[in-house]
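SEQUENCE-TO-STRUCTURE ENTRY
===========================
What this section holds: a protein sequence and its matching fold, both as plain text.
Question of interest: how does this chain fold, as expressed in backbone structure tokens?
***
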Amino acid sequence: MNISLDNIPIGQTVKVKGISDGSIKRRLMDMGIVPGLEISVEGRAPLGDPIEILVRGYKLTLRKNEAQSILVEKEVE
């Protein structure tokens, strides 16, 4: 089941399945967010926007609307 990145709790690792929004898809891919990549949610601002994620060893901060465009699959533990 694919869900959007903004619904993932802090500390959880997920695998990117795709990016749904065409208008920011290229920008997210240029930042290294591609299908098959494992990312983890590191933090969240008090009101939920922005969201901090760990991607390829570096921290990246995304707006909530950007995170909603990233479809992910929860890792099986």
Remarks:
- The chain has one domain: 3-74.
- The first strand starts at residue 3 and ends at 4.
